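re the bet — no i am not wrong, look at it urself. input seq straight from the record:
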Amino acid sequence: MPTPHIESNKEDIAKVVLMPGDPLRAKYIAENFLENAKLINSVRNMLGYTGTYKGKKVTVFASGMGIPSIGIYSYELYNYYDVEKIIRIGTCGSFNKDIKLLDIILSSGAYCKSYFDVLLDGVDVDFVQSSGELNRLIMNKSKEKNIDLKFGKTITSDVFDLYCDDIEKFRDTFPDLSFLSVEMEAFGLFYIAKKLGKEASCLMTVVDSLYDKHSLTSEEREKSLNEMIELALESII
């Protein structure tokens, strides 16, 4: 049953979806990690693919950038395609001194000052937790794979923080500096999941830090992102 943003039939999409922001990363995952991957969406070039991973049917579907974009795609996938679980797999920055570049972070929940919730439902929610059950699966698999997974809260922002005139002032607008990660989508995904009674989690690789200006190579990024992608896939089988 196509929607205004997704052209797929219901049977084209698996019950479990991995959701990178970048459509080309969805294509990369389909080509390098899935078997018999089939393109199931190209509307607005927001690419989606369905295939199998170790016999498990999986859909990889891009979200685009920001809460409005992931809000639309997650809502339609959950509500019209009967998706049960979405794991966002993306990149993030960090204001936390204990977090290093290329660390992999699992979000316990996201704090946001967006009007997304107010406009959608007339409520003002600052913090939404991710799925405890999905998080448990991911944490157990990270221990099995000897992956040093960081677990903690996320800031979801409506702006790309690196473009702020005063990034330290931006950081200080948030009440709790124990947050591990800063990104632009998790709150929207978690909010929609909670609203619809579904499950959502978010895995992120740290690619920017206020305390580390090291320039990452393409090889470093690819290796760390691959480890995160594999962790997500292994957690759902």
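see?? Residues 153 and 176 are 10 Å apart (CA to CA). told u. also The mean pLDDT is 94. so pay up
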